[in-house]
Description:
The chain is built from 8 helices and 8 strands.
Amino acid sequence: MIVDAVHTNNTQIASIAAQVNMLAINAKIEAARAGEAGKGFAVVAEAINSLSHKTRAAAEDITENVAQLAVWISELRKEANATGKQASTILDQSEQADSSLVEIEKQVELAYKETAQITQNAGKAHEVMETFMPSLTKIDKSVRKSAHDLMQAHRRTDKLINLSETIVQQGVSGGGNSVDAPFIKFVQSAASEISNIFETALATRQMKLSDFMDESYVPVRRSNPKQFETRFSGFTDRMLPVILESAFDLDPHVVFCAAVDRNGYLPTHNKIFSKPQGNDPEWNTGNCRNRRIFDDRVGLKAGRNQDPFLLQVYRRDMGNGEFAMMKDLSAPIFIQNKHWGGLRLAYTF
């Protein structure tokens, strides 16, 4: 390395300067011994000595500068290596970027071709739709008319059902149907008994009227079909089962007996329909009917009826795809002249 060579040569120069300095000292000594004759020689020796000192000082400066230069060159070499590595990394990344750009170009070209194909197919589809548009318009009109007719039929069916139930109601009230008389008597008596139980709970401060009229139905976690709790659910569980179960002693055709509030909420059911829910929703539908809200037409009419009794005919979902035709007889339940709901008694015919 050139710096090392300069350092070596400078060391040699310093060594020579030191030797010259020693010779100059010796010359001065000899000149002093020679007396007057050695004065000229002493002047020369002094000049040589001065030159040797300057040479030595210059050599030391050069040595220091060369050492500093060596440090700078070492640092420069490190920076050059780092720069070389960065340059290599950038070059690799540039190659990768170039490869990625090539791939992107291919994908864009492919997307362009697919877009062109889609556009072509869309054009064909548009032509086909234009061809079928008159037919589709006719179909749409037919569907709308069918939906309207269906709604009209539904309304007419509801009116027919209500009318037929009114006729049956009037016939039963006039004593024209003795078959339902025992059921009517039972449901009215049981509803009155439940009203007395509720009012006794108020009088003894077991419950508040606001508790019985609670409509904040709290969902039961992980229930399917969904079940709910209210502030009166626990009370009806304790007080109503004796009355509800006694309905089965009335007639073998009795299917169930349960009280519902004004919104069709059924807190306490017969034991046979109050099993704990399992993992099968279909099984739950038929066997876990307590704590449910039955806000269908029959359930709501039974809960909101305030006439002495209401007789309805309906098809009941028993679960697992099974249905049963039955009569639903209900009587209203009052608490201090406030309508709470109704007692439902269902039986087959």
